[in-house]
From TrEMBL:
Biased composition (Basic and acidic residues): 1-30
Short name of any one Pfam family annotated for the protein: DUF4371
A single MF term (Gene Ontology): protein dimerization activity
Protein name (database record): DUF4371 domain-containing protein
InterPro entries: DUF4371, HATC_C_dom, RNaseH-like_sf
Domain DUF4371: 270-477
Amino acid sequence: MSSKRGSESKDKSKEAIPKKKYKTGAEKRIQASKKGLAGAGTAPGQQKLWQPKSQPSQNSAELEVLPQENAPLPIVMASSSSRVEEEGEGPSLLIREEEGEQKDPFLIPEGSDKDSDSESAADVESDVLSLITSTSATCNPFNAPDPTCNISVKLNFMKSHPVQPLSDASHTLPFQAHKVYFRLVPGGSAIQRKWLSFCADDQKLYCSTCMAFCTNRRSMFISGWPVNKLHVNERVKEHEESALHQASVISYMTAERKSDIETLINVNLVNKQKEKIRNNRLVIMRLIDIIQHIAKLGLAYRGQDEAAHSLLNRDLNHGNFLELVLLLSKYDSVLQNHVKEVVALSEERKRRHPQSKGRGGLVTFLSKTTINNLIILMGMMVKQRISQEVTDAVKFSVEMDSTQDVGVMEQCSIILRYVRERDVHERLIALINVKSTTGEALYLSLKEQLEKVSLSVNNIIGCSFDGAAKMSGCYNGVQAHIRNVSCSSVYTWCYAHILNLVIMDITQCVIHVKSLFGLLEKTACFFSESYKRLSVWTEQVSSQRHGQEKLLRLKKIGDTRWWSKPRALSTIFGSCSDQSKELYSTLIYCLEHISLSPQFDSKVVSEAKYLIYGWTRYETLLVSFLFMQIFEIATPVSDYLQTSGLDILQAWRMVEMAKSQFQKLRPSFAKLVALVNAFIEKIDHSLDEMSVSAEVEKSLPQKRVARKKRMPGELARDEPTVDPLKGFEVHTYYAVIDQAVGSIDNKFSKNEKLIQDLAFLDPRQFSNIKEENIPAESFNTVADLAGVDSVQLKSELLNFKDNYPLLKKSSLPQTATVTIEESDDDEEITSDIKKNVCENCLTCCYRLLYDYNLHSAAYTNLFAVYKTLLTLACTQVSCERVFSKLKIVKTRLRSMIGQELLESFLLINIERDIANNLVYDDIIDNFAKSSSLLQKLLI
């Protein structure tokens, strides 16, 4: 027991004696350094320096030198770990109170200050937290900025002052405003105290200059002096004359004139940064031009090797974008220097990190991410411009259609038609990938896309779709859902699609007609299936034709292409009026050559003989020339219906004109027979010169007449037509003409009431309009659509039709160019139609009213009606043009392109007039806002 007690007493004695703690070498060096710095601060002749606390950054702390005063001040150094400035911001200008100076009589009593030696890591952390808190609180004009803030923050704080409210019914000032807010000077004039602000909430006065530029934070005018009615004037005057306030004013004026130490020290750095930013913006400008060039041509821009360190290797495939950058860098010094710098930095990084595949922190402006962001941004800006134009126009029409692309995705294009200033526009606003093609789903997609660009479905006054039930259905179609929201909207079945359906009807109504177009398709496929057969055709055509005509090929036909049937037929026969370019004799020669050649097998020979028999029949020639006459009427109308900006009245007039010409063909069968006989005589002469043994029929063969059995109870006997030519006239010729006229009447019968109202607005009918001949309800439909009074509209129209001839004479002649773009599966056909402005259409009347500004007074209602009618869409072929461009942009090799990027590409490609007018600075500024790093590099 005694031994245990002895051991316990020894342990207690050991615990009672504290161990001496020895400082490490690092702690000794830090303590010695702090003492040395503190001693240097009290050295005589020492410049007055102040190291402020600032926000964390990557740059090291800097000291700011203030102008020397009467007595030196100690240097107050801060720990380097907590005195790091924010990148891009210099030190702030601060004022220290000196000994012997006149002090502000309103100072908060000074407490015990900690020495710099005793400052710990916890104090530093609390300083940083207080800095963050004070920075976030500067949004309140009475929260003083932190003393360590830079000059720009303090100057921004000064912009919110002075705050000098006056007495009103809601509150009363506790002092006389004219005595406190103003200072009297000799002579009786008053000067406003712009440094003084009053907070009505807490009833305190503040000195904004001291709040921002004074380092002594104990002044009551910094934290707010509670107003004392008896001594307010004295206290304001005492603070205004204090040395502390005077020093703050000098600091503020120095900073305002950019003569402070921060600005003078950093002027070279700022200039270098500005030069770097200017150079970066020049690089982006050139990249924007390259992107627009690639997008307009619909080219791919990615490549196999896009790493920056491989750009100088010209043997690699860098893609269209980088190849254009390298090409232009040969002739442009800005791009050349940028590429050299980027390649050098990338090679250096590759040398240090050979296993790394990314770019790290290197900003090249040439990466796929940067280019994708620029493309998407430009597409968004095009959308915004279109949205602004539609908003200015107020009312608009919608055109929609969908198709399946090469990536097996259902793409829906949305076109908006509107009238802005004096022109009609049809713009692509969205290309969306729809998951469901029901009428409701498509309507919701349309509504969503319009809301994204700040447009409303309530402003839709018209829509034009194809005949698909999901679009045109009167119960669940898109047009039905639009009418539920906009009751007065007008639905128009696309006139171009209807005309194509009319052509399909007449090509399927008679067996002889079906045989002709089946023969055309089979012949084109016969030659295209084998290069040997096609070489026979090309050799023969090349020997007979010159120039581009040597490349003529037989065309295939398709039901979804307006021009495929007439082009396939005209390639063989030319035209009714000019048959000098016919290839009929060449076709017969090639078929006979193949049928007699031993290098072709029996199947090919039999097919060639069958085709010869089909093309040499008299019946085939009659049907061919009949449809050549029909296509000469329908093709110009179809082309015209595909023009952009076509108004509904002009489209209706063109359709009626085609119908009238079809009716005139009915009694002209004899002319058709004479035309065919003349062609046969010419062909016989050509075939004899080519030594072709095949013979073309010169008349219809006599066939056995099938007689129907007379049934019991029937008194009359069926008397069939015995003459084959007469039978062809009755059963084929008349059937085709009647089918064409009937299909037009049946399919173009929509919106008849609206068309009747438009007839009175047609300037060609102005001479026939009389007040007594106009029905009372004639303008009700169009007036309701435009939202005007029908009686006033009628009065304005009667006045305008009398003045129209005089106004038309004074107008300047104008011309317009319309571009039609169509696309087949194999090629894209572009044709330009140039026409003079007729001065006798709805567009002419609208432009006349707009140019002369007559709608502002005399013809307000009439102008609104003409603008509304021009806004109505009668076709949706603009959607078809979008799909033509879609096949160019989204190819088999680019089938995985993103939807947002695809839409932006198409917007730049199709709406190139808007894309060309985008301002470089706007694009670059918006691009820079996408990240803080880009803001430092570009702004």
